[in-house]
Amino acid sequence: MKSADFNRIRHRLPGVTRRDFMKFCSAMAAAMALPVEISPKIAHALTSPGRPPVIWLHGSECTGCSMSLLRTDHPSIENLIFDLISLDYHETLESGAGKQAEESLHRAIEENYGKFVLVIEGAIPTKDGGIYCRIAGRNFVDIVKEVGEKAGSIIAIGSCAVWGGVAAAKPNPTGCVGVRDVLPDKQVIAIPGCPSNPYNLLSTITYYLTFNKLPALDRQNRPKFIFSRLLHDHCERRPHFDAGRFARQFGDEGHRKGYCLYYLGCKGPITHANCSTLQFGDAGSGCWPVAIGHPCFGCAEEGVGFAMPQFTTSPVMNVTPAATHAPINVERGQGVSPGSAALLAGVAGAAIGAGAVFTAKIGDGKQKEKQGHEDQKA
């Protein structure tokens, strides 16, 4: 990256050195599973004079994804919205209100017709014409249709916006759906999670800026660099799973020792996400549910989060363990770095025999639980 490029925005990044900025670009490259050599190209894209215009709409939700965004540290929220992107409209962060806010929305649409990035947070009620979510006297479903038709690209952030999330949980009295159901003819990038990690959104936008195209998407339109692997495959407790060491109850010896939480209802074996490596809140390692002793809820996987009972066991998609030996003792409170986790998760699973042994242990465990229930009835 040329010094002149960084000098153009130095006055807007107080306390940030060129070295720190390049570290950030390298981190973004790693997050997108790109070689570190691409960092200068990311830096050039982020320092270019034209910032991508972003319009952010809210439907039926708790504003958790926006709250998560406010807690970003590299870059901070002010650097993000004033220097890297142009956040032209956001109902929660908007300084204006009422008519003033609505005028800024329409102005942003007109000035950036076909170019702006539309971010939608929250589910969209459709029952009774969508009257259960109204903004400025209009049903939200109608606003999404109008603005969506004029957007350059569309991102559904959070599980509510992707498929309806908690707002669409049975019996779904307001008929909530995801953005894709309201805009079936548009390509909607899906970044689920409850809340979605803000760096997943930032890295997706950064990819778009750097290469002027969308990242590779899976069948559900989720960026592959985020959602291509199961949480189970790069979980810090996976060695315990492979060795058959499980917590059976909250607070028992296995739970205190940090054993696998599968029998407590962990949905990691069927949930595609990067929570265990990216983690949350810029609070350092160990800041995600499994690290603090609670099973994964599966909030980022459609048909799992807000659908399956929280503490029931889930199917296991990848039984075969990694080719490395599972350690006997694992210190708790020490998280796995993203690089280490990616390296470990990338090792090919070849121990078929060990997988069969583990399957037998699963069966033995369920048989013991069944026997325990029968003994209690007796």
Low-confidence stretches: 332-378
Query: Could you please say which CATH topology of the largest domain applies here?
Result: Rossmann fold
- Helix share, percent: 25-40%
Shape annotation: globular
Average pLDDT value? 79
Explain the layout of strands and helices.
Elements: H1 3-7, H2 18-31, H3 39-47, E1 53-58, H4 64-70, H5 77-84, E2 86-90, H6 99-111, E3 117-121, E4 124-125, E5 134-135, E6 138-139, H7 140-150, E7 153-157, H8 159-163, E8 176-177, H9 179-182, E9 188-191, H10 198-211, H11 224-227, H12 238-243, H13 253-256, H14 275-278, H15 338-346, H16 352-377
Structural write-up:
Helix content is 38%, strand content 9%. It has 378 residues and is of the alpha/beta class. It folds into 2 domains: 51-227, Rossmann fold; 231-377, Irregular (Cytochrome-c3 Hydrogenase, Chain A, domain 2), CATH 4.10.480. Strands 2-1-3-7-9 form a 5-stranded parallel beta sheet, sandwiched between helices. β5 and β6 (138-139) form a beta hairpin. The longest helix has 26 residues, at 352-377. It is globular and about 60 Å long.
